[in-house]
Amino acid sequence: MKTLPQSYHVAIEASIQASKVLMEFYKGKIDTRFKKDGSPVTLADLASSKVLIEALDKTNIPIVGEESYKEDFQTRKKWDLNWCVDPLDGTKEFIKQNDEFGICIALIQNNKPIFGVIASPTEQKVIFGGIGLGVHISSFSGFSNNENWERVESKSKVNSPLIVIGSRSFSNNEYEKLVDELHQKYDEVSYFQKGSALKFFDLALNKADIYPRFAPTMEWDIAAGHAILNELGGEVLNIETGQPLVYNKENLVNPFFIAKTKAMKSN
Question: For every residue of 81-115, which 3-state class applies, written as one string?
Fold first, then answer.
């Protein structure tokens, strides 16, 4: 594989260090607070954010993050590059202590995700990939030696039965309608739920074929998984327009979307 740029190494190492911080909080009583929009936040979110921001600041690339200061759009729209960071994706799952949470870091160039990192603190694994670099998965302990990195390859065929993965926190009529449509097209359809961006682990590793989302998400929830899936030949599309999601928008909320593997995309 090509050598990873130094800034990518910084991002991956930061995700590993922040994961260790999250696990220290995860072992004890979780102090939960609520933001103005009603979403939960914990001291773990803030501590992880601090680790990530301090590391990524050294790359001299601006940052858009869930728990960090966000520049106004008049400033942001002039950026060619920016990091998009979620220091604790799946805060609700973290609070429930069901292990389904992660750290997401993406590099955005001209509104498109070109590199992504998703770390799973409980599994002690990190998946990362970007344009022309392939996608790899590594244990936290083995990351320093790239001989320990396992290259991820796409399958040419969808799973049988077809596997639909969805969020634990959200389900609605539109979601059920899509599942019904898939049942009409495929002989068998299996459906399961998982919290956070770890769903992109399953898509990347061919353990799921399609992830539809008919509920609000933010750019930092999806950008890393989008970059990884793109490099594997998959796609993340706006349900209304059929076009790929874009980033560093004035409104950082994502439209509803469908993420597909390479096999599902061509099916």
Answer: EEEEEEEEECHHHHHHCCCCCEEEEEEEECCEEEE
**Is the same domain home to 140 and 169?**
no
pLDDT given at position 61: 97
Q: What is the model's pTM? A: 0.94
Instruction: Give the end of a domain, one of 152, 175, 205.
Output: 152
pLDDT given for residue 172 in this prediction: 67
Whole-angstrom Cα Rg for the chain: 18
Structure-token match 């991820």, residue found: 152
Instruction: Name the residue range of residue 212's domain.
Output: 162-265
Q: Which two tokens stand for residue 64?
A: 């858009």
Angle between helix 6-26 and 43-56 (nearest 10): 160
The 10 Å CB-count burial string (b at 16+, else e) for 226-253 is bbbbbbbebbbbeeeeeebbbbbeeebe
- CA 267/CA 257 separation, integer angstroms: 18
